């Protein structure tokens, strides 16, 4: 798992605006070995790792478990992922989203279009 260096600033900006941030990742248990090497994860309010729940994105059940576990209203949430299939699956569950291709400026434009303060 790698973090786009510009994404650190985005994460910090969102937290400064008061947003709650959650990670929903298709990761194996190896995630926990590397977790401490990714400082940006310290800004997240919760981590939801697929191997802990025995389901994967884009399966609908992973989103349902994610919403329930963190008491998240999908209609008040915004999902960022690097795969269109996962964004489509989130949308099917009522959550808007954006396919992130690594371009921070495009992501910030998506935030503006969705009235997300940064």
UniProtKB/TrEMBL annotation:
Gene Ontology MF terms in the entry: hydrolase activity
Keywords, in A-Z order: Hydrolase
Official protein name in the record: Putative hydrolase of the HAD superfamily
Natural source organism: Lacicoccus qingdaonensis
């Amino acid at each position: 798992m790698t973090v786009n260096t510009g994404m650190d600033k985005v994460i910090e900006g969102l937290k400064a605006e008061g947003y709650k941030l959650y990670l929903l990742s298709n990761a194996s248990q190896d995630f926990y070995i590397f977790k401490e090497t990714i400082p940006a994860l310290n800004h997240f309010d919760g981590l939801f790792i697929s191997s802990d729940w025995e389901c994967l994105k884009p399966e609908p059940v992973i989103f349902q478990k994610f919403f329930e576990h963190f008491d998240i209203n999908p209609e008040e949430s915004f999902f960022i992922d690097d795969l269109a299939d996962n964004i489509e699956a989130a949308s099917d569950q009522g959550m808007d989203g954006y396919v992130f291709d690594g371009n921070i400026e495009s992501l910030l434009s998506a935030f503006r279009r969705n009235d997300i303060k940064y």
